[in-house]
Amino acid sequence: MPDRNLSCRKSLFFLFAMATLLILVSWVLLLDSTGASRLIDNHRLSISTPNRVFSISEPASVAAARRRPNALSRESDVKKCDPNSAMLKVFMYDLPPEFHFGMLDWQPEPNSNSVWPDIAKKIPGYPGGLNLQHSIEYWLTLDLLSSRFPDRPGPCSAVRVMDAKEADIVFVPFFSSLSYNKFTKEKVKTKVNRDKELQDKIVKYLTEQKEWKRSGGRDHVIMAHHPNSMLNARMKLWPCMFILSDFGRYPPNVANVQKDVIVPYRHMIRTFVNDSAGFDDRPTLLYFQGAIYRKDGGFIRQELFYLLKDEKDVHFSFGSIRQNGISEATRGMHSSKFCLNIAGDTPSSNRLFDAIASHCVPVIISDEIELPYEDILDYSKFCVFVRFGDAVKKDYLINLIRGISREQWTQMWERLKEIEGFFEFNYPSQKDDAVQMIWQAVARKLPFLRLKLHRWKRFARFEVGLKASRFSPYN
Ligand SMILES: *[C@@H]1O[C@H](CO)[C@@H](O)[C@H](O)[C@H]1NC(C)=O
């Protein structure tokens, strides 16, 4: 009896196995015929919202560039902006000009009621020199202002909407970095700090808006790229999404990698166009230029100087790049294989982006650094990371650098040339340049933003209008 039972079970199992196999085979065939298997192969995960699809994976261009070198061609991108397919619908406050283009010495026409310059005619210039490293506020605002131009070229990641209820985010066009640079470094010290005054004004303005009250600021995007910008306001506007260069001077509850977006500095060094200067054409092994003593993490620079000063193919010089030093620094970085990026008084600096624009492989010694778009970009493919603790060991750094082969270096150099466009700020913006990449990074935060917002709203219906102020963090 037990034998027969067993063989019965065996044949049942066989039948079951065959059936399963058949189902699997037909499933695979079906997938193939619909093209769905391609999606699965690429490990793309798409989220659909009405009319819009965005995917949680690297942009197609990043993936394409990974597969084919030099694939970031601009020719194929001369498409028009299609507002319906934008990832991000943005409502922008019509702030008084003193918060933005007024700081660029622009004034509205006497009989105009627009707070914005007519940028189709003339674009007010942003102050040059070191101000430019933090000019992100300028590029993003210009991009939004032009997002509905009928002849706007290139695909657009973000479009402006005039009704806040249609918007994914609310954009605050306050040029806070310029406000810091312009008003706190004035030669003649004024009694009232104009930068602080503008910050107080913006807090008051925002917290009075119905858009702010509706979300407690959770869907607001505020730019504070200069580490010292928004110094007073940041503690009051913390529920918003900040656009920052790093988190060095922020407590983690005010800004963190989950909620906020890290974006590049605009580089100061000229982009190395048509770079054919490979391994043997770059005589300097390792290049560093920077201030010798900065507070906080800065001691490491001095340590490294003593470790490296006798290496003959290492360029190590102190003094920050000023306007007239840019040509010299450009020459230096364009003729170096590796460029050191050492933490100064903040974890980030524009030096990393200068190195990328020079295709000089960055050597990053900054344990606390946060990098732009790192959720979709693997920096280890074109940067060398060294921990503080290792970098100060005798001969560690120089041996590591000398141990990188010509082939390994050339791979990183090729990758730098593929990705450099992600760090270029343009107007009009181009496909996957820094402006588009920043909007896309903001769009990738939307699921988390909505989660936060919906959780906050659970009980808000009882309170909004009655005690809305209870939800604002500043009283
Ligand atoms: C780079 O190369 C292209 C194509 O050969 C050429 O048209 C362009 O002028 C070059 N640019 C520079 C700055 O050399």
TrEMBL record:
GO cellular component: Golgi membrane
Keyword annotations of the record: Glycosyltransferase, Golgi apparatus, Membrane, Signal-anchor, Transferase, Transmembrane, Transmembrane helix
MF GO annotations: glycosyltransferase activity
Chief subcellular location: Golgi
Location relative to the cell: Golgi apparatus membrane
Keyword Transmembrane helix part of the UniProt annotation: yes
Residues passing through the membrane, by range: 12-30
Membrane topology term: Single-pass type II membrane protein
Residues annotated as domain Exostosin GT47: 87-393
Family: Belongs to the glycosyltransferase 47 family.
Protein name: Exostosin GT47 domain-containing protein
Taxonomy of the source species: Eukaryota, Viridiplantae, Streptophyta, Embryophyta, Tracheophyta
